[in-house]
Design brief:
Length: 135
C-alpha cells in the first residue's frame, strides 16, 4: 500500500513527466532547470525554416524569447545523426539554424551534459541568457 505522502509524490512525478523530450539528456536538463527554480520550458516548439520546413527547439521560454539547446557531441560526430553530412556540414547547418532562430528575436542558451551534472554551471548559463528564477 502506498502512503498518502508517497501517493502525492508519485502524482507530482507523473504530472511533471513530458514525453516530448528527444532523449534522456533533455529530460535530465528539464529536471535540473526545475530544481534550480527557473520557469518551466516549452519542449520541441516549432519554428518555420525560411528555406523550407521547420525547426524544433529542445527547450524554449517564449515569454522571455529564450531558446535552450542541449549540445551533445553525437549530432556532430555519429553517423546515425549525420546521415549524408560531414561533421563540418552538420556544424554549419546548426549555425544557420541558430541564425534563423536568432533573427526571430530569440536569445540562445547552450549547454552540455557536464553543465547538467554541475547545476551551478547551468544556472549561470540560463541566468546570463536572461531567465529569472521563479521558485
Amino acid at each position: 500500500m502506498v502512503s498518502p505522502r508517497g501517493g502525492r509524490q508519485s502524482l507530482k512525478a507523473i504530472k511533471f513527466g513530458n514525453g516530448l523530450a528527444d532523449n534522456a539528456g533533455e529530460s535530465e536538463s528539464r529536471v535540473v532547470i526545475f530544481e534550480l527554480g527557473f520557469p518551466d520550458p516549452v519542449l520541441q516548439r516549432q519554428h518555420v525554416n525560411p528555406n523550407g520546413g521547420h525547426y524544433f527547439t529542445d527547450t524554449e521560454w517564449p515569454e522571455y524569447r529564450t531558446i535552450g539547446e542541449l549540445d551533445g557531441r553525437g549530432k556532430y560526430l555519429k553517423e546515425e545523426y549525420l546521415g549524408s553530412m560531414s561533421p563540418g556540414e552538420a556544424v554549419y547547418a546548426e549555425k544557420i539554424r541558430e541564425d534563423h532562430l536568432r533573427a526571430e528575436g530569440n536569445v540562445f542558451a547552450r549547454w552540455g551534459i557536464p553543465d547538467i551534472r554541475e547545476p551551478w554551471r547551468l544556472q549561470r548559463i540560463l541566468s546570463k541568457a536572461g531567465l529569472p528564477l521563479v521558485r
